[in-house]
User: Fold these one by one.
Assistant:
Number 1:
Amino acid sequence: MMGPADKRTGNNAWWFLPWAIPCLLMSLWWAVSATGVMPAYLLPHPLDIAETGYGYIFGKPEGGPYAGRFLSDAGASLLRVGCGFSLAVAVGLPLGFLSGRLWFIRKLMSTSVNALRAVPGITWLPLALVWFGIGMKTTIFLVALAAFFPVYLNAAAGAGQVNPLLLQAGAMMGVRRLRGTFAILLPGAMSHLMAGLRLGLGISWAYLVLGELTGVPNGLGAVIMDARMLGRIDMIMVGIIVIAVIGRMSDQLLQAGMRCCFKSARRMM
Amino acid sequence: MLLQKRQEDDVNSHLKAVPRKQPHSIEEVLRIDCIFKGFHTAGGYLPVLDGVSFRAEKGELIAILGRSGCGKSTLLKIVAGFMPPGSGKVLLNEHPVSRPGPDRCVIFQEDALFPWLTVQENIAFGLKGKQRNMKVRAQEVEWLLALVGLSEFRDYLPRELSGGMKQRVALARVLILQPQVLLMDEPFASLDAQSREEMQNLLLLLWKELSHTILFVTHDVNEAVVLADRILLMDKNPGRIREDVRVDLPRPRERESGAFLNVSKRLHRALRD
């Protein structure tokens, strides 16, 4: 590719910039723990966290309640987020697209979507527990519900703001409905779609933990809740860090996947 | 020359129609038949086009010249099929036009390229539905790239091109569809003077080569005189064709020649009243 299509990623010499803030926070934390300003039962030393984390991920010879549980927890959580988020995308994306293009669908959906959107996701938890019981289904329901709105709303906004000139240009070049949808509307709305998907995936992780706080046996949220009851603050922090890392990785994976599949995602962001 | 002779006539003769060529030489491509169009606005009904009629012969380059707001762009949109006329008909090869299609291609004033496609993908876009053979498709794209002088920029994205280059791509991507009529809506209005002249020359070159029928909407008198075989002078409020001026200046036209300046002076005056 000759055209310098990826100018905005910037200079390679600045690769460390995204890590500057985490490093700063780490050193601050280290300093605070080392000087004893914060007692260890409130803020454990980074090395202790590292040790707990290592044990959680790779297991420990002496065992312990959390040793080596990482794979099964992360697997369970990923499955729940994956199912919930996919459900939200499967419904939200086409519906959002339609309501962005067709006044009838937009009018039909407006009251319901905006009223439901005003309800905080956590209020659904008691109802979901009654309907689906504790476990997989409740979590998926909460994740799907929460991720639906950003996906739907951004898809609608994106489809609505596609430059009408591009559609006219397509029409005059003999492009009919179906091809127009995939060759013009979808790429034209790509930056909004992408924003919606990323927001949706991010919020999926938030609601995953909410869903898992209710007494499921496995999952990253369950570990955190369990550690709270046992007063294992080091384990809580390990859980937080693990979720941060997996969340960030899933976001990058999503972006990479979209870039791989769509020219418009590759060239417009 | 017809125009200079008419110039000496009195003012009323402007309203006379130009005598048409001999019937046997006419091959009519486009007929605009008594188009009326108006819009309902907050201030009431606003008539925009008031009985516009004309015919375009095959290979003719017609400029539609008028001040902003005279309805010339509306007329072009109706011919393109983006907008239905209030009443009247547009006939292409005697078939009524009802929706946009690749037989009447538009070059828009603003940039209407697909920003996520490279130059060559933009040019190939319209062909995808028509030409299944990848090899033929690549050849045609190659030919058009060369024709508009963008071979070296084939892999650039539109945002990396200048305004003039974008309009070259816009030309190429419709020429590849071999339209019967090319509709150009002030396509060079937003370019700087040099690129505008360059684009006008390119258009004339392409027209000589491919001899399309072209409707060229503009508010620039000199542009109209440089390009057109015929200039339709449009009145404002409501829009109607006041005058059908045949420009018989020899090509290539010298922008500084006396005859050229005479014609453009007369049109300037006509636009002003």
Note: The longest helix of chain A spans residues 70-101.
Number 2:
Amino acid sequence: MAEIVSLADGIAEVVHDGDIVVMEGFTHLIPFAAGHEIIRQGRRNLTLVRMTPDVIYDQLIGMGCASKLIFSWGGNPGVGSLHRFRDAVENAWPQPLELEEHSHAGMANRYVAGASGLPFAVLRGYVGTDLAAHTDTVRPIICPFTGETLTAVSALSPDATVIHAQRADRKGNVQMWGIVGVQKEAVLAAKRSLITVEEIVDTLDPKPQQVVLPSFATSYVALAPGGTNPSYAQGYSLRDNAFYTAWDTISRDRDTFLTWMREHVMRPEHVARPQ
Amino acid sequence: MTVTAARQLHNGTVCFVGIGLPSTAANLARMTHAPDVVLIYESGTLGAKPDRLPLSIGDGILADTADTVVSVPEVFNYWLQPGRIDVGFLSAAQIDRHANINTTVIGADYAHPGVRLPGAGGAPEIAASCREVVVVVRQSLRTFVDRVDFITSVGFGHGYGDRERLGLTGAGPRVVITDLGILRPDPETRELTLVSVHPGSTPEQAQAATGWALAVSPELTTTEAPTERELSVLRRLEATLEGGRGVL
């Protein structure tokens, strides 16, 4: 059964130095508060995994938390580059960042394989591209029934998956709706998981096209209202598009970035913020 | 460019849409000549009908107005992979004479790139599995290169027959729309050929913005100018982006 804990305790329990860590959320429900807590706890040498690294991984990379990134699209959606990601790849700042690069379809299937307890997944993909030559988690495989050559991608089985959802009940059952991305698969693929939520309620009344993660399938739930800002939680908050645009300027310069992180993420009142 | 891209979609076409120009073009088509075009966004929203332009691929308005919202594995495995989608829109940082696309790195050395680009996203499988692909890209010597530095998404490989040899199920790029004109693959060689120039542009300008000897169709035409209606709907759509916010 999932245990309901504070955000700080939850991160301390699930994310350790050197871990393979997934934080998913497809534009919607990105777990920013949890990412900031990982930065404040000073985690190092993480292998960060995410289909669309987004601003949250730009912040983790720029603060020196990551030594490797497994991903399929690394940009600031609708705005442009992720400058901290690019600075790490192009100039090894603040440290070198090893890349393992896939397509969205490949990443999604890697989570499915992990969630299914299989060592790999099969898809039609990557054929004719230069991606496979740079990624040893992509291999050709022959169908035993038809003889057709398909593509195998190895399973993702992260040490920890951290996501944000709309609600949980007091037993730790989690409910999310709207664009649900690949979070269910990412949680089920992981050894440990933490789900931050907008609110904890007595009963989860049904929502259209909801995804429910039963309490027995997750490790920890933490209350973090607004914990997805500047991303959004359908029914609770709006995406702060102006911040995504502003991030382009904030993140372009190393000192401006560090100053912003010190003022907005690292200050003691953030660390001590009651949950 | 946007109007020409919108005209590629017919009423009822099932279209895989990315954010930016493709999303604008697809919604323009839906609000003008193709009211029943089906928009599928890779965030898992099938049949989205936004009344304003979405600001991101995961904008709440897409989920609110969709026929159904599915997971990301489902959108790729059940909907894209088996060939249920008619048209996929792609853009490119580099495109070559056989319409291969690079969105990964600029520079020959992958490990030490001159410019690190965002990467593949959904593009490789869109290029492989949509029944056909429409590429929309500004034409310049930087983007139109003889060979791409990295093949992120396959157009026609090295030419005729390569897609079939690779086992790719979709037909590949049917048309490339630029700010100067329209290119189509030659039926025999699969080399991109200039078939139309936009009003005010010339084949010489297109050649000057292309990093190889650009083939020009003997039946070169001039692109039909946007109509008043297309332009007014486009302006109204674009105005929804200004000061726009995600919805609850």
Note: Chain B has eight helices and 14 strands.
Number 3:
Amino acid sequence: MRRDVFQAIADPNRRTIIGLLANQKLTVNAVAEHFPISRPAVSKHIKILIECGLVVVHRQGRERYCEARLEKLNEVSDWVEQYQKLWEQRFDRLDEYLKELQKKEKKHGEK
Amino acid sequence: MAKNDAISERGKQDVIITRIFDAPRELVWKAWTDPKHFKRWWGPKDFTSPYCKIDFRVGGKYLNCMRSPEGKDYWSTGIYKEIIPLERITYTDSFSDAEGNVVSATHYGMSADFPLVTLVTVTFEDYGGKTKMTLSHVDLPAGEMSEQTGAGWNESFDKLAESLK
């Protein structure tokens, strides 16, 4: 099973959880209150977020608080950025190649 | 909710590029679909494309190679999902070995955070004698994987879905 940041944000409930935790640390119960889905289902999403490195849990007395690790989200833009650059470079070449092709066609046309 | 918006913005995982090419749409289309033309631009600056095989039909596969100036080969493969002549091509994209077996980005020394399968959509539009081309390159949503294998994708893709479990 994939456990990376892409997996973490693939689910809308998990995106909402990250959003909630971005503002404040919350207990699992407090997070669960925001959802119509069952507490075990929320716990499962939190577990996945922990495994993906986007959430850490601190114990304070009897409560367990969830805290978001937002810096992890930067990883998402990493592959996107790399592909963005790659495509831009390809399209620069495509642009040149299309010009070259049309020049040739013109020459042939004149003959 | 403002912060939630900021999250979705930061978590945005799409590459979207629009470019205008000073060429008729037929020619830009050919550049994508004819291996002879495709090889001429597929590699970025200073790269070459020594190999390109395209089975251009829905469900058909392609296998491409980019060779870096240092001579390192980067193979990629995928399956054409949708083809509307002169308008739109959608295909999956993955790193692969020279035989077309899908490999993780780590095979090429890149981050394990690269998705294993991504989805590329290219659209072509007339733009006053020129061509407006829009590319979208997105991570394949996890939930779509099984749906698509159910829709008659070939067995190699089933294998791929299996490897993602």
Note: The helical segments of chain B are 2-10, 25-33, 35-38, 144-150, 155-164.
Number 4:
Amino acid sequence: MASGGSNGKPPKIAAVGLKARFGSNEVVRGVDMQISERTVTAIIGPSGCGKSTLLRTLNRMHELINGATVDGEVLLDGENVYAHEVDPVLLRRRVGMVFQKPNPFPSMSIRQNVLAGLSLTGRAVRAEADAVVEKALKQAALWEEVKDRLDAPGIGLSGGQQQRLCIARALAVEPEVLLMDEPCSALDPIATARIEDLIHVLKERYTIVIVTHNMQQAARVSEHTAFMLHGDLVEFAATNKLFTQPSDRRTEDYITGKFG
Amino acid sequence: MSLARQNKRQGERIFWLVSLFAIALPLVILGWLLVDVLSDAVQRLSWQFITSYPSRKPENAGILPALVGSIYLIGLTASIALPIGVGAAIFLEEYGRHSRLAGVIEVNIANLAGVPSIIYGLLGLGVFVRALGMGRSLIAGAATMALLVLPMIIMVTREALRTVPMSLREACYGLGSTRWQSIWQVVLPSAFPGILTGAILAISRAIGETAPLVVVGALTYVTFVPDGIDAPFTVLPIQIFNWVSRPQHGFVVNSAAAITVLVCTMLVLNGIAIYLRNRLQQRKAT
């Protein structure tokens, strides 16, 4: 299958023959893809095509659901994250995640939310806390809006701000890869635009994989796009190629709106 | 058209009356009970009554050993039942949610919650008093009471844990926290107000329980304040039961006064629980 992500360098993340199931229901049916470092890769496809599940196998979040199993390999810098000796907890500190619905911790202030990844895992360094908070909030383009009320509760922010707070929270643990599962689907167009701007900046430092059901968004933010259908990776190519000259008939039907 | 509307109103009016009756009836009975008890109690209720030991003469008798015994017993019961109950609920809800074993345990816990309290008393007598050699002591009574309230604490804690949204747990895992870290620092604090409310309700039930303690062997005539967890003891409900069964009118008055103290103790406990819960919920909401 396609490997549009490779451009000479070894991939940051690669899926090899990856299958994911819920019980006996196979929702990802053997996906191979390679994602280069410091790029944005979008995964698109109709609802239920397995795109979110594929994303969640990359940092082993999939297996937390009861009855969920995975076959095949995911390579992070060439190392199989499903190898027996890999601790999924440590993996998730290198591969962070932003969810569909903003989910700041309701009992924590803005500041505590940003530091949550460190304090939850017992790595809070009091002396550096202020610097960590400022850096993460600046990276998430939220600093200017909240710098005067860091001790206000995180759930008091607007939806778009909450999602950027969640991004700041994910960035504060300094991951290498950031997985985003439809991060804008609960946001209005203005908040969406801000997150997309943010993705453009973040790819200078992070490898980003974003699942979206919004094709325009995929076209705007990503270098590479993967199209999934019924659990198969139909096409994986440079974004402008996939949207202008798709090589698979099903991709063309989908992006021209013939179904889905 | 106008006729149909009138019918509808009538139906609504009947329903309103039925629900009014449903709330008025228990209130009237409760009020009656309180007035009846209080009218007797006022003659006897005084600081001297609270700080005196039982006596053969009703006018000298007081409830100090029973009141202290009740407070000790509740403290001990809570410190046994809460950690075990919350721990069991965490296991069932967070770790074993879908296992068959958890299903079997769940059915059994629901059943245990309905077992008559005297059965727990017999179990306590057999296990704690005799087999474990605790004797007729505070700790044996507290252990028996803990068994009695455990099913309820487990059930309310599970209910509270269930209200914590899955997305918060996922947020924790996504940040690289272990299951334990997410439970301890995010899930439990979020569920805490609910756990607290349920636990207090369960514990207040234990304050009023008499039957299991009669079986375990709480004494009815105690002239000393228990000085350790292995000391014999009595509690307010047993003291009340004892006085009510005496023929002299003075003791009946005493029991009314003791009932008043018992009810006030429960009110204070419930009040504290509601205050704590509201404060914690406010902190969460603001």
Note: The radius of gyration of chain B is 23 Å.
